[in-house]
Amino acid sequence: MDKLCHACDKLELTTRRFEVLPGDDEWGKPSGRIGPPIPLGTVEDLLTRTRCPMCRLVVAALGGENKVPTHSASGESLRVTVGWDTHGTAPDAKESWVHLPQSRVLIPKVVKASGMITLLANDAPPTTTSTTYLVRPIAKDRIDFGLVRRWLALCNTHHGEACHRYSILKKLGRSNAAECVPDFRCIDVERNCLAGLCIFDSLKAGQVEKAHCVNKAH
Q: Out of the domains of life, which is the source (predicted)?
């Protein structure tokens, strides 16, 4: 027996919702989207809800069961959203995209859940105080700073101060590796500048954590 699923039931669909009548907010105003996109779940979720007529209708509107993709090229599950829009008469043929709403329509879309757009760190103004969370183009032979930050976080969580102790420094009577070669500098490829050895120590700790995880996995 056909029945709306829990996601589609929240759409509160009625025949009245597909009409634009005098007194409605959209009546007599230029066209436009109505409210934010409404999530229905992953494409795979919709394909399993064979008893939900709305899910079947959405899948058909997206191209059909055998054509709608379930995963992105990177393997991420694709999600489905629907959004309310309006249709109606276009007063000016030269601007056919502008219309006076006479009916409402639901527009389904397939989206990636993790898509984000922001500024490239290299394009940030000189006055930018923090570029840590701005994105950077990453080539296969370059450092992925997202992974580096994750390794450092794991290192601090599981090892704590242990990663900041070096037995060889104790034998040399020094407390910091930078003291051995005070003028030594590294290239900080994240901020495109020279950096002191202490930053190299942190990255080294991240590399140790990576090796630890890889060895543990194998």
A: Eukaryota
Question: How many CB atoms neighbour CB 192 within 10 A?
Answer: 10
Contact between residue 139 and residue 125 where contact means Cβ atoms under 8 Å apart: no
Q: Phi and psi dihedrals of 109, rounded to 5?
A: -140, 150
Q: Measured between alpha carbons, how far is 168 from 35 in angstroms, rounded to an integer?
A: 63
**Which of 75, 76, 78 is CA-nearest to residue 67?**
78
Helix, strand, coil % in the chain, rounded to nearest 5:
35, 20, 45
Contact 136, 121 (CB under 8 A): yes
pLDDT at residue 198 greater than cutoff 70 = no
Instruction: State both tokens at 144.
Output: 């992925």
Task: Give the pairing type, strands 34-42 and 186-188.
Answer: unpaired
CA atoms within 13 A on the CB side of 112: 10
Alpha helices in 15-166 (DSSP H): 43-48, 53-61, 145-158
Q: What's the rounded Cα separation, in Å, for the pair 77 and 27?
A: 38
Q: What is the pLDDT of residues 152-179, one digit of tens each?
A: 788 878 877 766 666 666 777 766 666 6
